[in-house]
Amino acid sequence: MKVLGIESSCDETAASVVEDGRQVLSSVIHSQVKLHEPFGGVVPELASRNHSLWILGVVEQALADADTDLHGLDGVAVTEGPGLIGSLIVGTQTAKAMARAAGLPLVGVNHVHAHLIAAFLGPDPLDFPYIGLAVSGGHTSIYLVEAADRFTVLGRTLDDAAGEALDKAGIQLGLPYPGGVHMDRVAVDGDADFHHFPRAFLRDRPLDFSFSGMKTALKQYLKSIEQPLDARTVANIAASFQQAVVDVLVHKVVQAAVRTGVKTIVVAGGVAANSVLRRDLSRRCDLEGLRLVLTPIELCTDNAAMVAALGYYYLSGQADPLQVHFDLDVDPFPRHVIFRRGTQ
Ligand code: KG4
Ligand code: ZN
């Protein structure tokens, strides 16, 4: 079954064709990073306008790369939320129009769930159930994933997402946008023990996160030391800050596995590309006798292959999209834009 996936929830316009939820036939991503760079963050109005400029070209390219056209597909899957409402509308309306024109079934999928399914597209064998850590610029949550329609939130951030904390730290350290990517890059030459940043383990909420205190701690620390910072000091501070974020993520996701007795951990989302998180979690899982399935780096950040992969379960009848509860603390988004062949 060939599924076209469309993703436009934030600042990537993406389309992909995936076969049977496993094999990526094409994956095209148009990134808006350069567009938002001068503002130090995603500007929603610019994002949605740019999606509408690019989306048709991106979809056409994905179809061409997969050597197919709309009539060679078995269904369409689109991210329906969470995300920026104007951006989501561009993707969902495009998907609706294409599905209607070609007489294809269409399913809307949850963006965070799609991140947590992306690991199925990698080389490591994977099966349900697993503990999923979804860690990105917008989300930091731990899930028990029992099926493509059974995602249970075990813990979530009470304030900033981990990627947001890294991005904001990057700005404070004068690094380019997006901060998380450049924190990882410069931290390679830094000393993670240079400065101790607080780790919020929240003992009464063992699987929840809080990162906002770290941001304040960094601001205060930067005020207390001599400026401007040389490159070595920036690297040391970036490494120390990143280590604090990673320590909390590793501790909590392992706790979730221990508490539930589920032996497999999957890490997904933009921050799952972080080299220190990948290294430390691998080591810790080895020690704890847990199996770690890392999402392939190119599928960690936003893409449409993960959307097509999740859509496949719904379109093939292996999971029921109406069972999926949109239980996230997110902006409003259009619910379940679902119709099947021959309806609506
Ligand atoms: O999943 P994603 O593309 O978009 C959201 O759904 O948020 O994640 C983007 C986030 C940004 O905060 C970015 O700084 C972070 O992922 N990120 C990283 C790395 N690559 C991307 N953070 C740390 N280390 C990386 N290597
Ligand atoms: Zn994402």
Gap from first CA to last CA:
22 Å
Shape: globular
CATH fold type of the largest domain: Nucleotidyltransferase, domain 5
Provide the residue-averaged pLDDT. 92
- Portion of residues within helices: 40-55%
Task: List the domain count as a whole number.
Answer: 2
Q: Return the CATH class of the largest domain.
A: Alpha Beta
Oligomer: single chain
Total strand segments: 10
What value does the Rg take, in angstroms? 20 Å
Structural class of the helix and strand makeup?
Answer: alpha/beta
Going by CATH, the architecture of the largest domain would be 2-Layer Sandwich
Helix segment count? 10
Which band does the percent of strand residues land in? Answer: 15-25%
Any idea what the CATH superfamily of the largest domain is called? ATPase, nucleotide binding domain
User: What is the string of SSEs from the N terminus onward?
Assistant: EEEHHEHEHEEEHHHHEHEH
Biggest sheet strand line-up: 3-2-1-4-5
Low-pLDDT stretches: 326-344
Largest sheet composition: 5 strands, mixed
Distinct ligands, ions and cofactors found in the model: 5'-O-[(R)-(carboxyoxy)(hydroxy)phosphoryl]adenosine, zinc ion
